[in-house]
Amino acid sequence: MVIENEKILVDAFSNKILYCANDYIELEMKNPVSTRYSSHPGDFKKYSTSEIREKFLIEDIFQPNQLTGVYSMEDRLIVGGIHPVDQPVVLRAIEQNKAEFFLERREIGIVNVGAPTQITADGVQYELGHKEALYIGKGVQDVVFHPSQTGPTYLYFNSAPAHQAYPTKKISTREAEVVTLGSLENSNHRTIYKLLVNSVLETCQLQMGMTELKPGSVWNTMPSHTHDRRMEAYFYFDLNEQNAVAHFMGQPDETRVVWMKNHQAVISPPWSIHSGSGTSNYTFIWGMAGENLDYSDMDAVKVTELR
């Protein structure tokens, strides 16, 4: 997959310059996936606003004709986006993997937050509609993400280490396990779609789902919780340019806020709460990896105990 103009030929995934001014060169450019290290809760208390944003917030998830993301040392979850514009994007191994191909020892979950599109996995093509999810298991070698013919293509993904191969499977909101929680009176009326969880399909450790807030509601995951057995990542969307979400994180007695815009994600360590309140209603995707697959395994925190 290449980008070509009069002077250069560039690999769209690895960003390697393959051809330049009539001479082939081997120039390695920036790895599309960066690394974020784990943080101690005691250190977190001392972070400034800019340090919190630098260590936990993922701002520019979608880049044209690329896969980009963050390799988090929190349970080694990879969080990122794929944005094919005018050519397909191929899933290739990254520097952190030290593998022959991306899914050699990993599984991946993808949720389409853009126009309907196609994903090809080892020669099988899957049609993925808006807000539909695709799970691809360990061992699948050839994965291609295609541009949509009807609008912008935005594919959000989480990837976790895998010990066993499970079949590739598409899950729509109709096939998900659906739960409605909260109330308009408490500004947290929301519908949770458990898309890639063990009550719907088999995975090694990855779990993903989507929560839609009803009009008039702004709070998610409130009352809040932590779960020391799993880390979590949130991706916010369905926000226009004039609105934002205040995402709350930290230990229950030492919370901090990260202001987030549309198409941004945040990493939540196991010791941290993960709640948000928007200036309008919105949708977010949650993804987890870690010790177990028990969705209900959480340590609840009363609203009155938050500090």
Quick summary:
This protein is mainly beta.
What does this structure look like?
Belongs to the KduI family. The protein is mostly beta strands. The protein folds into 3 domains: 30 residues, no CATH class; 119 residues, pectin degrading enzyme 5-keto 4- deoxyuronate isomerase, domain 1 (Jelly Rolls), CATH 2.60.120; 129 residues, Jelly Rolls, CATH 2.60.120. It is built from 2 helices and 27 strands. The protein is globular. The N terminus is likely disordered.
Structure characteristics:
307 residues, mainly beta, Jelly Rolls, 3 domains, seven-stranded mixed beta sheet, 2 helices, 27 strands, globular
Question: For the largest beta sheet, what order do the strands appear in spatially?
Answer: 4-6-7-14-9-12-15
Largest beta sheet, briefly?
7 strands, mixed
Relevant CATH superfamily of the largest domain: Jelly Rolls
Number of helices: 2
Give the proportion of residues in helices: under 10%
Number of domains: 3
What is the annotated CATH architecture of the largest domain?
A: Sandwich
Let me know the average pLDDT: 91
Protein name: 4-deoxy-L-threo-5-hexosulose-uronate ketol-isomerase
Family: Belongs to the KduI family.
Function: Catalyzes the isomerization of 5-dehydro-4-deoxy-D-glucuronate to 3-deoxy-D-glycero-2,5-hexodiulosonate.
Keywords: Isomerase, Metal-binding, Zinc
Which helices and strands, and how do they pair?
Blueprint lengths: L1 E3 L3 E4 L5 E4 L12 E4 L4 H4 L4 H8 E2 L8 E6 L5 E5 L6 E2 L15 E7 L4 E5 L2 E5 L4 E4 L6 E3 L9 E7 L7 E3 L5 E5 L8 E7 L10 E7 L5 E2 L3 E3 L3 E8 L7 E7 L2 E7 L3 E5 L4 E6 L4 E8 L8 E3 L6
Parallel strand pairs: 4-6
Antiparallel strand pairs: 1-2, 2-3, 5-24, 6-7, 7-14, 8-13, 9-12, 9-14, 10-11, 10-13, 12-15, 16-17, 17-18, 18-26, 19-25, 20-27, 21-24, 21-26, 22-23, 22-25
GO molecular function: isomerase activity
Keywords: Isomerase, Metal-binding, Zinc
Enzyme class: isomerase
